[in-house]
Amino acid sequence: MRNPLSHCPICAGHLEPVKLKCPSCDLTLEGKLPASRLALLSPDQQQFVEVFLVARGNIREVEKALSISYPTVRKKLDEVVVALGYAPHAERLEREEILEAIDKGEISAKEGIALLKAGGKK
After folding, report:
1. 55, 80, 92, 100 — which has fewest CB within 10 A?
2. Rounded CA gap, 86 and 18, in Å?
3. Does position 119 have pLDDT exceeding 90, yes or no?
4. Nearest CA-CA partner of 31 in 40, 23, 20, 46
């Protein structure tokens, strides 16, 4: 199955649909056409959303399917939310950054707990 194009293969700019054709009746529509908000996502983000939906939002299943850590799943989910035009909750981002730092071994679990109790700010 071919992946749908949502970004220009030359400059990576967002592609907009300008022409649609019905194969049944041969009707053709041309002009600035509305696109799905999901078309705003990069191919990697679209694949992540597909895995997330198949897993019915179960982050642990997404972890296993993509072989990534829990904090990475949360981070990718936040990136999708931002790409769709919504602002993620700032506290959640700080929390996820701390968890990611623990996961990568940049800080100890004890240091992470202290940061979380103090309200973030790595």
Report:
1. 92
2. 25
3. no
4. 20
